[in-house]
Amino acid sequence: MSNSRKVVVIGGTGLIGSKAVAILRNAGHEAVVASPSNGINAFTGEGLDTALTGADAVIDVSNLMSFDAPVIRNFFATSGNNLARAEKAAGVRHHVTLSIVGTDALVQNPYMSGKQAQEETIRASGQDYTIVRATQFYEFLETLADAYAVDDAVKVPDIQFQPIAADDVAAALVKVALAEVRNATIDLAGPDRAAFASVMKDYLDAKGDTRAVSADASLGYFGAPVSEMSLVPAGASLNGKITLADWLIGQSSVKEEEKA
């Protein structure tokens, strides 16, 4: 008897979604790439009923980049309600949502407010779920460096940081989706914790970026005030295996292959 499962990945063409799809398929599972470009739209509900037929689990890594809180809250809440309705109708066993560590305390950030709405929607839906809150991705460090750039320097909040590789996030989401339902929220973080400024300096040094890096206690995180532990797990967490150093080596290898 086959152990193959059908898993629908909402946002399956994005950074995390595409990696999750690859992991599922490599393990012999049926992975449905769900995105508006494929005629499957969680926000409008288009194509959901057909896509979810026979599915065992849904991994929701859908995304909307906006700094308009009402817009992004509406996107995540509407998508969540549409997914829960379609999942219950199709008999889907498990809904897995990717969220962000620290969401509750950072709702003054519009995006975090949207993720909070997403979490609240699935908890209230009656659909069995697991919410996985991840720390920031290594792949986001360049964006952070640019966001906190001041003249020829980079000034970041004076907080702890524990970033994680997108590969580890995708692997964890797949593992959770195929496991038993938790009806709870779990945290996911990278293997190493350090000061944000230290992580940023290591990243920029590896790239040959000579900008000075410093910590500024007056800075928040994209509109939200922060404390030292705002962006790292407060208690037990799942942890990725890929260190920043190893990830940077991997990125260099990819660039060398592209040049060849």
Provide an overview of this structure.
With 260 residues, this protein is an alpha/beta fold. It has one domain (6-259): NAD(P)-binding Rossmann-like Domain (Rossmann fold, 3-Layer(aba) Sandwich), CATH 3.40.50. Helices cover 39% and strands 20% of the residues. The protein has helices at residues 15-26, 48-52, 69-90, 110-124, 141-147, 166-178, 196-207, 244-259, and strands spanning 6-10, 30-34, 57-60, 94-100, 129-134, 149-150, 153-157, 160-161, 184-189, 194-195, 212-216, 238-239. The strands form three sheets. It has a seven-stranded parallel β-sheet, sandwiched between helices. It has a three-stranded mixed β-sheet with strand order 6-7-11. Strands 8-10 form a two-stranded antiparallel sheet. Strand 6 (149-150) and strand 7 form a beta hairpin. The mean pLDDT is 95.
Briefly characterize the structure.
By secondary structure, the chain is α/β, with parallel strands linked by helices. It contains 8 helices and 12 strands. Strands 2-1-3-4-5-9-12 form a 7-stranded parallel sheet, with helices on both faces. Strands 6-7-11 form a 3-stranded mixed sheet.
List the helices and strands and how they pair.
Blueprint: E1 6-10, H1 15-26, E2 30-34, H2 48-52, E3 57-60, H3 69-90, E4 94-100, H4 110-124, E5 129-134, H5 141-147, E6 149-150, E7 153-157, E8 160-161, H6 166-178, E9 184-189, E10 194-195, H7 196-207, E11 212-216, E12 238-239, H8 244-259
Parallel strand pairs: 1-2, 1-3, 3-4, 4-5, 5-9, 7-11, 9-12
Antiparallel strand pairs: 6-7, 8-10
